[in-house]
């Protein structure tokens, strides 16, 4: 049965605390990265045999494999993927930035120039489940940003890829796909090998080994974030349907044994009803073992004194997914300060965001929503500033710049300006 706590019985740090295996992956990942950097493709083939039971003769998906896989995708699913892609594209096109130029002062031109990254790597998980939705969410913003080349990596279990993954990649505009997973895939993208081109940025979720690999290669390449296990916080008043809330909590619990599903409500009767419903619905899930482990080890129901107190709890822990299951949710939206993605009202389950609505589902976890944002078009661009001054404009401020530089003990800085207007012998 899902555990119920009164407000104050669980500290903020314990609300999304997880029972995690005591495994330090740091050293293992470091060895894999060094091996791939040293041996290139040879190391990748070895890891494919070892971890994916895939005895490959080529790492890259051929156009024939790609086309054959798409032909095998259910036509209804293909239509769903295409419509989802349109929704995602429509939302992310609103995020596009443009160059700007300032010419409001005589003799000066200032501005900002937007440049897409040249090549990005998309990591798509392929372990206990396959996620074509993640393909769409990662590739579409990159293509909208203008990235010329999107390289996707995803593990080929037994040498085969899920056809839906390949179909989603085609719809989203992915350019090349490699049958690689784990830390070795991150290494290939970060360093490049004989087959896999080096990228400028790696995005996409993965397991603990993938997350640690991204952490270790950061600086060699850019990364989107260090994503932890999935988490959902549902803030609900007493008028909710317990079965609906239980289903929402389980939608995250079935992801991973380390996922966290938490309900905060101002109603003790609702809390008790949800706990009963979670137990009932668990028995109906194909992934019951995973979901049950998540619920029993990491799931919690917290009874707050008031709805405002429940919202305060949400702001304190900054959840990846926040469902605000209340009447008139827009009355409370301004109170939410920290959340990756917010789902408003009683008919907005988190799964709507995973697959369909349009906002990105690659979100900050582990409290990082306090200072970071969902994946967006901004993740795939660079911003460069530019400056132009005429001689008269620079002359007018030369002494001021020199004075500023002198205050910092950097005389050569000031001289680099003044020398342009000085007589011989400066």
UniProtKB/TrEMBL annotation:
Task: Give me the residues that bind substrate, please.
Answer: 230, 252, 255, 321, 354, 408, 413
What's the protein here called? Histidinol dehydrogenase
Residues binding Zn(2+): 252, 255, 354, 413
Q: Name one GO molecular function term.
A: NAD binding
Q: What organism does this protein naturally occur in?
A: Candidatus Avoscillospira avistercoris
The record places the active site at 320 (proton acceptor), 321 (proton acceptor)
Cofactor: binding comment: Binds 1 zinc ion per subunit.
Q: Which residues bind NAD(+)?
A: 123, 184, 207
Q: Which UniProt keywords apply?
A: Amino-acid biosynthesis, Histidine biosynthesis, Metal-binding, NAD, Oxidoreductase, Zinc
């Amino acid at each position: 049965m899902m555990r119920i706590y009164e407000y104050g019985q669980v500290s903020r740090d314990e609300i999304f605390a997880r029972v995690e295996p005591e495994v330090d992956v740091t050293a293992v990942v470091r060895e894999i990265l060094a091996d791939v950097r040293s041996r290139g493709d040879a190391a990748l083939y070895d890891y494919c045999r070892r971890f994916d039971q895939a005895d490959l003769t080529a790492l890259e998906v051929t156009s024939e494999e790609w086309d054959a896989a798409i032909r095998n995708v259910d036509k209804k699913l293909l239509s769903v993927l295409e419509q989802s892609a349109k929704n995602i594209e429509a939302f992310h096109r609103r995020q596009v930035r443009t160059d700007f130029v300032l010419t409001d002062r005589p003799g000066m031109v200032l501005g900002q120039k937007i440049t897409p990254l040249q090549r990005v790597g998309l990591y798509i998980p392929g372990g206990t489940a396959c996620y074509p939705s993640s393909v769409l969410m990662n590739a579409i913003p990159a293509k909208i940003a203008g990235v010329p080349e999107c390289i996707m990596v995803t593990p080929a279990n037994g040498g085969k890829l899920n056809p839906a993954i390949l179909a989603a990649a085609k719809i989203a505009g992915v350019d090349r796909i490699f049958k690689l997973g784990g830390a070795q895939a991150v290494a290939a993208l970060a360093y490049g090998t004989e087959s896999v081109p080096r990228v400028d940025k790696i995005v996409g979720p993965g397991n603990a080994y993938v997350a640690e690999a991204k952490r270790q290669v950061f600086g060699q390449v850019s990364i989107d974030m260090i994503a932890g296990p999935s988490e959902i916080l549902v803030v609900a008043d007493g008028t909710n349907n317990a079965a609906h809330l239980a289903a929402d909590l389980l939608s995250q619990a079935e992801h991973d044994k380390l996922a966290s599903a938490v309900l905060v409500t101002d109603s003790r009767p609702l809390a008790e009803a949800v706990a009963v419903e979670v137990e009932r619905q668990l028995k109906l899930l194909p992934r019951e073992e995973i979901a049950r482990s998540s619920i029993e080890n990491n799931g919690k129901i917290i009874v707050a004194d008031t709805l405002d107190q429940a919202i305060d709890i949400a702001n304190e822990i900054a959840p990846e997914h926040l469902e605000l299951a209340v009447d008139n949710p827009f009355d409370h939206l301004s109170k939410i300060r920290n959340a990756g993605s917010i789902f408003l009202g009683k008919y907005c389950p988190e799964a709507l965001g995973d697959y369909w609505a349009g906002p990105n589902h690659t979100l900050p976890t582990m409290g990082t929503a306090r200072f970071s944002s969902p994946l967006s078009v901004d993740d795939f661009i660079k911003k460069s500033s530019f400056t132009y001054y005429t001689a008269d404009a620079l002359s007018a401020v030369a002494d001021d710049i020199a004075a500023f530089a002198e205050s910092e003990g950097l005389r050569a800085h000031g001289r680099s300006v003044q020398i342009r207007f000085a007589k011989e012998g400066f």
